[in-house]
Each structure stands twice: as C-alpha cells, then as structure tokens.
Amino acid sequence: MKKSEKKKLKIAIIGAGGVIFAQKLIKDIMLNGHLRSAEVMLMDISRERLEKSMKFSRMLAKALKAEIDLKSTVDLNEAVNGADFVLTIFRSGGIECQRYEYEIPLKYGVKQVVGDTAGPGGIFRGLRVLKDLLPVVDAMEKYCPGAYLLNYVNPMSINTIAASRRAKTVKVIGICHSVQGTIHCIAEWLGVPVEEISQQTAGVNHQAFVLKLEHKGRDLYPDLHKLLDNEEIYRRDRVRFEIMRHFGYFPTESSGHGSEYLPYFRKRDELLEKFCTADFQLFDDNGIDFAPMNAGVSGASFRICRQLQQCNDTKLEKMLNGDFEIDRKPSCEYAIQLINAIVSNQPYQANLNVMNHGLIPSLPPECAVEVPCLVSGGGIQPCRIENYPEQLAGLNRGMINMQLMAAAGALNCDRRQIFQAVALDPLTAAVCSLDEIQQMTDELFEALREEINPEFFKEEKRHEKKKSHLQRLEICTS
User: Fold this and answer.
1) 3-class secondary structure for 36-86?
2) Which alpha helices (H) appear in 327-433, and where do they start and end?
3) Tens-place pLDDT, residues 230-249
4) Which of 412, 424, 310, 384 is nearest to 20 (CA)?
5) By the 8 A CB rule, do 429 and 263 touch?
6) Burial grade of 71 (CB within 10 A; 0-12, 13-18, 19 or more)
C-alpha cells in the first residue's frame, strides 16, 4: 500500500452465522454514511450458516440500495487480519449445554432463571465461551494489534476480566442492552419521553444502578418510589422494586436475572412464590410469553430459548425466501454507534463494560465495571464515578468475588478455582454446603467436559494440589 493511500476501515463480525442478530449490526452499517464503505468481514465456524447470512446480507443491501464490501470466511485469522473493530456475537455450545447448567444445580437446590451471568450456570457458560473468546484475543494480538474488541457474549463481566487480562494491546469493551432497556421501562412507567430523561448509571454488568434520574432537572425517584404501591407495575418487576425499597436505587436488570445474583429471593420456595411468580403475561412479537423469565420463574430461560430457536429458524427461512419487511431506522445497539463516533469524531455516550482500575474506587481495581463512557475520535474514555453508594458496592462485591475467581480459574485452567468461584456465588452459598458445591461442580465438569477443553481441566489437578498442600503441612510440622 502506498503511503498516500488511506487504509480502508475493516469491521469483522465473529459469529455472523447467527443471522437474526448479525443482520441488525449489518443493517446499521449499511445505514451509516461513514461506515457503509468499510470492508465488513463475516466469520462463523459453520459454512452453512455463513452462506445464509451472506445471502440475506446481499438481499438487505439490495433493498436498502447500499453498496457495501461484504466478505465471509470460516478462518478466524483471516477474519481479524487488519481489522479495526472486531465484534463477537457468537454462541458457544447449544441448548443441551444450557440444560445441564440448569438441571444439575437444580438437584442441589440452586434454582436459576437464566444462568448466563452468575451462579453455576454463568460460571460454566463462561468456561464454554472463553474457550472460543480467548483465541479471538490471541488472533487479534497477532493480526490486528491495538484494535477494539466489542464483545456482546455473556457472561459479560467474567469475559471482560479474562479477555482484558489476556490482551496486551487489544482494547476489550463489553456491550450490553440492560441500561437502555431499564431507562425505556422507567420512561414508559412514568409517562416521560425517554429522550428527555437525564440519567447516570453505574455498577457491574446486570447489577448496575440508576444513580441519577431526572426529567428537565426534576428528580424522578419520588415518582418511581410511588410505583411500589402500583400493583399492576410492581408485580411485573417485584425483585427490582424490592431492591430499590431496601437499598435506595433501581437496578438495571430484570427481576428474573436480578433475583439470581443475590441471596434474598430464591433460597426458599415461599420466597420464590412471593417475589418470582409470573401472574401476568408479556408476549413478544413472536408470540412468546417472556413473563416467566422476567418475573424469575426457575428454568424459564431454558424453556424460552428452545422456543426462540424454533421461531428464529422459521423466521430465517421466510427472510431467505424474500418474505421480510425492513425497518429503515438504525437499531438501538451500541456497537455501530460506537464505531461511528470513533471514525467520524462525533461525540457519543454509552454505558460500557471495562476494567475498573479505579473508575469506581470502592470496588476492586481488577474487576469489570459498567460505567458511562465518552466516545469520540480519541477513542472510548470511561468516566470515574465518585461517591458510589456503599450499600450498592456491597451488593456488587458479592458478584465480583465470584467473577474474579471464575476468570482466574478459566485463565489458569484450574478446576479448584472454578469450584471456589461457585462457592463464592451468593445464591449458591445461600442454599448449599461446601461438599454439595464440590459434588455439583464435579458433575458439571463431567457433563460439559467436551465443551470446556477437558485436557486442561483434569480431575487430577485438584488432587495434586491437595497432595502438594499436605506435603507442605508435613514439612511445616516436622
């Protein structure tokens, strides 16, 4: 390339064979005047899924009259070679893995709803995902050092910590929908235009808190507290409203998710009945009732994911046959807006997941936090949160203890550290003894052995460490 030639922007999407979500991002690129001339590389391990994604992408480009440089590959190194931005949106393992991660802990009394962020389910999902995510970081360090990794894959905090520790030059950023979703919910409940709400939100992923909530300078928290007496609204989000009642601030994740991260709501059947009952309906555009997952019914996500997979398969076939309508507005996803802000030097703000390093001083420096970030041509600049309420930091630390240990266990391929991560999980600790946690962890390792690099997580490692520890004790006492 001649010195006078400007390098063409390259965006790589890893996991692009998951057509439904990938097309949101691809459409956003096509609709963006600064990005539509970029090279967009779609990568997936399945040629069949990748071909379907390319087919629909071309149909979409034709419908939008957008000229876009689309390429595809099943080779990770080729995908990231020379990339400026790499988006990870893949799924590691299938529904069967999710079934194990729900049913095995259930035998020991750990009643999960989603199991993608914390608890035994979230930790073992992390092991499955990091088996695929860490090679992306390694490939980026070799073929596009200094590029941005924009990750959508859960468990967000565990992945952000592990990937950031693995990275040398790659900039790891975690992206989630929960802050946008929460502010939209509050706006709808209070009858306030969402674009007129001023808010500051911070914490950890899936357990951040709305610290400031205003409409044209007026504090909206008194109005939000009044909703505790509004039975119609309260019963749709009991756990979140109870957290606000007792800790003073509204959390950013649904009651179903949020109930998994604390020891207060799921350790006894009467508590589940009181706080996690789906006595309402919440249908999406596909006719799937999300009320059980939103409320916190045990196993709801596993059942809904099977329905979603069937719906997506049907929807995809219709799309590939030309039976689709295009929403010509950009999606609300952060990723392409972040890229646009950096490339075009247009200021933008978003809540993103980054390493703490003092951003929230009362939380461990090596944890991942979700904080407001300012984005421009200078890159992504996280904002420091002063005077973060101590009661919220205390709630966060329960999740962070587990996340730090799980990330360490994944990076070290240390089975003992993974057990300790499960033992530190607040919900698991509320219902299980240490021996039960050990048995549960061993069962999960066995059930998921082919999904988490079994050659690295051998049972013998735990016994070798125990023997070594006993030998040291013998030396010390002799």
Assistant:
1) CCCEEEEECCCHHHHHHHHHHHHHHHHHHCCCCEEEEECCHHHHHCCCCEE
2) 334-344, 390-412, 415-424, 426-431
3) 999 999 999 999 999 999 99
4) 310
5) yes
6) middle
DSSP state of 283: B
Condensed to tens digits (0 to 9), the pLDDT of residues 157-191 reads 999 999 999 999 999 999 998 999 999 999 999 99
Candidate list 177, 357, 463, 469, residue with the active-site label: 177
Work out the angle between the directed axes of helices 119-143 and 434-447 (0-180°, nearest 10).
50
Distances (CA, A) of 198 to 154, 211, 264, 353: 28, 11, 31, 20
What one-character-per-residue DSSP string does 155-206 give? SHHHHHHHHHHH-SS-EEEE--SHHHHHHHHHHHHHT--GGGEEEEEEEETT
Q: What is the pTM of this model?
A: 0.93
Q: Is the peptide bond before 155 cis (omega within 30 degrees of 0)?
A: yes
Helix (H, G, I), strand (E, B) or coil at 209: strand
Phi, psi of 333 (to 5 degrees): -65, 140
Q: Are 252 and 209 in contact (CB under 8 A)?
A: yes
Residue 173 is encoded by which pair of tokens? 């950023």
Kindly give, in sequence order, each residue whose CB lies less than 8 Å from that of residue 40, ignoring residues fewer than 6 positions away.
10, 11, 12, 13, 26, 29, 68, 69, 70, 71
What tokens were used for 276?
């996690």
Based on the residue annotation, tell me whether 177 is a catalytic residue of this protein. yes
Cα 172 from Cα 35, distance rounded (Å): 21
Which contiguous run of DSSP H or E holds residue 350? strand 348-355
